[in-house]
Amino acid sequence: MSFLPSRLSLTARASLRTFSRAAQPMAARTLTTSVARFDASHPPIIQGSGAPDGSMPTDEDQSTGLERFELYGKLEGVDVFEQEPLPADRLGTVKDPIKVRSMYHEHHIGCTGFPAESHETLWLNLRLDKEHTRCPRCGSVYQLDYLGEPVNNHH
């Protein structure tokens, strides 16, 4: 069924006119910003410039965020996320625990025993509010070495 303007009833035409008037903007608004907003220093944007026109982008051109951070760390020869295994050359004790570095107040580790692979992997949760955590299977003691900013308990 076709709705041509000649077939519309008078009531339908009046409602269309009302609708079209309501859809029109009332007044054009101007966009204003404060100059002081642009004076503040911001953290650097971890984003590539993109590939030049007509060329295939490389990883350096198109990577962003944590991927770009990790990529440039590898180019410098630095493991930015420290993914190497924990030292398994000794058994951690309460007086000399195995320290686990972390930028966060909580860290999950997997203990495989001493000597290494002497028991199945047991997952332990190291927290900043606990002095140390002991593996229930082998007795090795781990401690969180917190590298982040001091904890503020206020809002």
From TrEMBL:
Gene3D superfamilies attached to this UniProt entry: Cytochrome c oxidase, subunit Vb
Domain of life: Eukaryota
Binding site for Zn(2+): C111, H119, C135, C138
CDD domains xrefs: Cyt_c_Oxidase_Vb
Signal sequence, start to end: none
Keywords, sorted A to Z: Metal-binding, Zinc
GO cellular component entries: mitochondrial envelope; respiratory chain complex IV
InterPro entries for the chain: Cyt_c_oxidase_su5b, Cyt_c_oxidase_su5b_sf
Keyword Ubl conjugation assigned: no
One of the GO biological process terms: mitochondrial electron transport, cytochrome c to oxygen
Pfam families: COX5B
Any one GO molecular-function label of the UniProt entry: metal ion binding
Residues covered by region (Disordered): 41-63
PROSITE patterns on file: COX5B_2 (PS51359)
PANTHER family, per the entry: CYTOCHROME C OXIDASE SUBUNIT 5B, ISOFORM A-RELATED (PTHR10122:SF0), CYTOCHROME C OXIDASE SUBUNIT 5B, MITOCHONDRIAL (PTHR10122)
The name this protein goes by in its record: Cytochrome c oxidase subunit 4
